[in-house]
């Protein structure tokens, strides 16, 4: 769980966009930890799409 601590530290905003991005990052990290490659790739792709919208 230590890898998720920086993600939890980001949770200071109450906006939906920020919460969504944090959830996607958490999913990406958790998938990498558990070696779920297909989920990790999908989460990384979604994370990239969210970054483009900014």
From TrEMBL:
Protein name listed in UniProt: Flagellar basal-body/hook protein C-terminal domain-containing protein
Annotated source species: Sphaerisporangium flaviroseum
Superkingdom to which the source organism belongs: Bacteria
